[in-house]
Specification:
Pfam families: 4HBT_3, Acyl_CoA_thio. By secondary structure, this protein is of the alpha+beta class. 17% of the residues lie in helices and 36% in strands. A hairpin with a 2-residue loop joins strand 5 and strand 6. The radius of gyration is 19 Å and the shape is globular.
Amino acid sequence: MNALTQELVELLSLEKLEENIYRGISRNLVGKRVFGGQVLGQALRAASYTTDRPAHSLHAYFLFGGDVNAPIIYEVDRIREGKSFVSRQVRAIQHGRTIFMCMVSFAAPEEGLNYQISEPEYPAPEQLKNEAELVQSIVEFIPKNVRASFTRDRHVEIRPVNPSNPFQPQPEAPSYAHYIRTHSPIAAEQDEIALHQAIAAFYSDFTLMTTALRPHGLSYLSPSLQCASIDHAMYFHKPFRVDDWMLYDMEATISNSSRGLNFGRMWQNGELVCSTTQEGLIRLREIETQ
């Protein structure tokens, strides 16, 4: 596997400390705080270690920012062992306090009613520039003190459908879309549903919250803005592969009371495979002037 893909797999593969207790490493992916997608993916993986069924839904709350310099302990509570559904509660603990909590529900696939909305029409990923190319096109806008971290390679490949310059945001429609996949195929010995779902959870936190900023002409880099994920829900509808292109289509429906509500859908080969919902804090603050 590509080195970045291998690092991502290792990030989402936890160490078992004892029954129902796991430890995950942390990585500096977005700045001083742990990337929300890392905690989502690790928590889902911890829960998946306690059952042989695939997840079908996850509901989470981000309580405190995580420390990128310390590991995270995941405690799994086996709430329910049903014939149709298995329920797990996961607490992520760091420095003695709970920084994140989620409920995960698992269910075996079964036949039933089948319907989905139509996939939106966008250019194919091969027709789009990747994120690295787009970053190079705006490198002159990136402050020198953050240029090295901003231009480093991500652990996933992203090709935005409607890119914008986060250093010069303009009011736009509250929608955003990109294609996303791992840099290389998942190795055969690690190729399991639980890992694909954990990586999709990792994917799901990329840019979703910032969709609500677009109509206001703001970006996550705006100096007047305080932003953070509050909660996150994810539904797994159909099987998918994270090493093949997935279209992540996002929209925001409202911003109010310093919060924005965002929805996302992941598509693969014409199939709606995942849906997401996230409310984020988008609070404007006064800028101190000399």
